[in-house]
Amino acid sequence: MTGKDKIKTLGQLKRAGYRSKGIKEELRDNLVLNLRQRQNVFEGIWGYGQTVIPDLERAILAGHDINLLGLRGQAKTRIARLMAQLLDEHIPIIEGSELNDDPLCPISRYGRDKVEELGEETPIAWVHRDERYTEKLATPDVSIADLIGDVDPIKAAALKLPYSDERVIHFGLIPRSHRGIFVINELPDLQARIQVALFNILQEGDIQIRGFKLRLPLDIQFVFTANPEDYTNRGSIVTPLKDRIDSQIITHYPKSIEIGKRITEQEAHIWEAQEKIVSSTEIVKDLVEQVAIEARKSEFVDAKSGVSARLTISAYESLVAAAERRSILNNESNTHIRITDFIGVVPSITGKVELVYEGEQEGPGIVAQNLIGKAIRSQFRGYFPDPDKFRKQKEKSPYKKITQWFGDGHAIDLLHDMPDAEFKKVLEGVPGLKELVNEHHGREDKTTKLLLMEFALYGLAEYSQISKNNIVNGLQFKDLLSGMFSLPTEEESGDEDEDALGGTMNQL
Fold it and tell me: Taking the CB of residue 134, how many other CB atoms lie within 10 A of it?
C-alpha cells in the first residue's frame, strides 16, 4: 500500500482504494510474486531447496496452518521467522487497537465502537510486518490466560464495568496476533488441556474466556514446531489438534558435508582478530562436519535426540579459539589450525549430544574423543590410500617407512601449545612422512602439506598402524606394540587415563 504517510483516517484509506486481505491470502500473493521473480525468501536455509522449502511453499499456496516436525537444530524456528518476509511491509489498523483491527472490518469491541463513533474520521496507524510476527515457546507453565486471555479485575475497576462486560477482558497472545503469524515452538511441551483450547481457534475462530463466548473471527497464520513425538516423555501433540493442523512438514539434517560446511561458515561467529591470526583449510572444515555425521550414527548417542547443527558451529568456533590461544601463548602473529587443536572441540561435543546408557558408562569426554577419532578415520581415505588394503602386503605399503621408523623405537610428542617452528621440525623429523604427502598432495602449499603430515599420523593411529597416547599436555605417537605394553605413567598422562582423540581401547 503506497502513500501510508499521507493516509491518517478511515476516509482517506477508503478513497485510496484499500482492500482488506486475509493473512493467508497476503502470504500467498507475496509468495506467488516471489516465485515468478525467482526470488528466494528463505535465504540462509541450506540443504532444503528440494525438500522442505517446496513443501512449505505448497502449504502457503494452499493456505494451510503448518507444523514443522524435526529434531533439534534443523532450522525450524528460523524458517518460521523468515515467513514474516512474505507479509506486506505495512498494513493499516485502527489506532489504539489491541487486536490490530482492520479499519474496514474491526473485530474487537474497541474497534467497532471507534468506527461507530468517529466514522470516516477514525484515526489509522500503520504496522510494520516485523510487528506482526509473534513467537511463544511452549513450556509446562503456559496458561490459557497467556495464550487466549482472562478477565482483568484492574481494568474492570478502572472502567467501572461489571465482569460481564466484554471490555474487561485482557486478551492473550493469540488474539493479539490477529492479522499476523503466530508461532508456538516445541508444541508437544504444551499441556494437553492447553492444546485443547486451540481447537476452536484453529477451526472456527471462537474463543471462550471465563464464561465469555466471543465470536472473534481471528485471522492468523499458525506455525508450530515440534520434535518427533517419541523424542522424549515430555508430551505429545494431542490427536484432535494434529488433525486440525493442515500440513506437517518434515525437516532433516544436512545430507552432505558441503551443505553442512555452508551452514557452519554462515553461523559460526569468528572474531575479526581471529580471522587475522588463524587460517583454516577445507580438511579441517570437513573434519568438523564429519564429527557430527559420526555422532548421528554412533551407538553411544541417542538417535531420537538428534545432533544439532549447533554442534559443528560451536566446534568450529572452539577450534579457531584453540589455535588463537596457542598463537598468543607463543607470541606468534599468525598460525594455522592443527589436528591437535581438536582437543578444544571436546567441550563443544559433550554438551551437544544426549548419550544412551552405554555412552554414559564410557563417559561424555571419551565418547567425544572417539567421535573425533572416527571422523579422522572416515576422512583419511579421501586423502591417502586405505591402510587396510596393505595389511597382508606390508612391503608394498606406502606407510612402510613411517611405521618402520616408529617400530625401531622412535617416538614423537605433539604438544597442544607447541610453537609452529618446533611443530614443523618434529613432523619433518619422521622419515617418509613428508614424502608421503608430496606423493599424494604435491601441489598443495607448505601450510597444507604440514597439516596433511599431521593428519597422516592421526590417521595411521586410527587404523592401528602406530599408537597414540595422552601425555600431560599433548599426544605421543610411537610403535603400536610399545604403546600397548608401556602405558603412560601418571605423571605423563596427568588426569587423563584414556588416549586422546580415539583412546587406547580403539587401538586394542
Answer: 15
What phi, psi does 125 have (nearest 5°)?
-120, 160
The Cα 77–Cα 91 span in angstroms is: 24
Of 137, 353, 146, nearest in space to 225 by CA: 137
Report the 10 Å Cβ neighbour count for 124.
18
Model's pTM, two decimal places? 0.87
Ordered domains of the chain (ranges, CATH): 10-250 (3.40.50.300), 255-380 (1.10.8), 385-508 (no CATH)
Res 503: pLDDT: 42
Return d(Cα 15, Cα 252) in angstroms, integer: 49
The C-alpha cell that represents 433 in the structure block: 612422512
Q: C-alpha distances in angstroms, 78 versus 27, 73, 103, 227?
A: 17, 10, 31, 15
**257 versus 155: which is more confidently predicted?**
257
**Phi/psi of residue 169, each to 5°?**
-80, 135
- β-strands 474-478, 467-471: how paired? antiparallel
Are 462 and 444 a contacting pair, CB within 8 Å?
no
Q: What pLDDT sits at residue 171? A: 87
**CA separation for the pair 121, 118 (Å, rounded):** 5
Q: Cα–Cα distance between 478 and 507 in angstroms, integer? A: 12
Q: Say which residues have a Cβ less than 8 Å from residue 140's Cβ, sequence separation at least 6.
A: 189, 191
Q: Express each pLDDT in 84-105 by its tens digit.
A: 999 999 999 999 999 999 999 9
The type of residue at 73 is G
Q: What is the C-alpha separation between 178 and 176, in angstroms, rounded?
A: 5
Q: Minimal CA–CA distance to 369: which of 211, 507, 195, 199? A: 507
Beta bridge pairs of residue 102: 105
Rg (C-alpha) for the chain, rounded Å, is 30
Longest C-alpha distance within the chain, in Å? 98
Q: How far is CA 405 from CA 159, 326, 438, 482, 508, in A?
A: 91, 29, 19, 13, 21
> Does the pLDDT of residue 280 top 50, yes or no?
yes
Collect all residues with Cβ–Cβ distance below 8 Å to 238 and sequence separation of at least 6.
192, 195, 196
| Single-letter amino acid, residue 168 | V
Q: Residue for cell digits 499521507?
A: 6
Q: What is the pLDDT of residue 490?
A: 46
User: Cα 337 to the chain's mean position, in Å?
Assistant: 24
Cα–Cα dist 466/478, whole Å: 6
Cβ partners under 8 Å of residue 441, min gap 6? 383, 448, 449, 452
Give the span between the Cα atoms of 124 and 28, in whole angstroms.
25
